[in-house]
Amino acid sequence: MSGTAEAAMTAETADTEPAGAGAATAPAVPGQRAAGRGRHAAAPPAELRGSTRIPASVVEKIAARVAREVPRTRSARAQARVRGETAVLKLGLAVEYPAPLRRTCAAVRERVASRVAELTGLTVPQVDIEVTELRGGRARGG
Description:
This protein is an alpha+beta fold. Helix content is 37%, strand content 26%.
């Protein structure tokens, strides 16, 4: 093989073969992206791509709605204080009469804390409850 043909072959393979194990390679086709970049490359972990902030007003709406899902709870309003990854809640409840208040409040507290944590990713160490109203439940026949 002549020296010119050998030089042309060496230049051609330099563009298409890797320089060594683990080395980044230039694209073989002009205008093509290098391997490991582009649309199909692995995205960086979520914590490195930005942040998510959940305002207290959103936490309040979630907490009030979840509290109303507990049997014998007629209405609920919520206040939330969010600091970092923690939310502290205060609920005002209207409860059906005659309902066992301590058991009803314990059920609301457990459900609200777990669902708010599940839906927002926030830690909920405290849920204070004030029963603000007793509402007549089912009418008794008699």
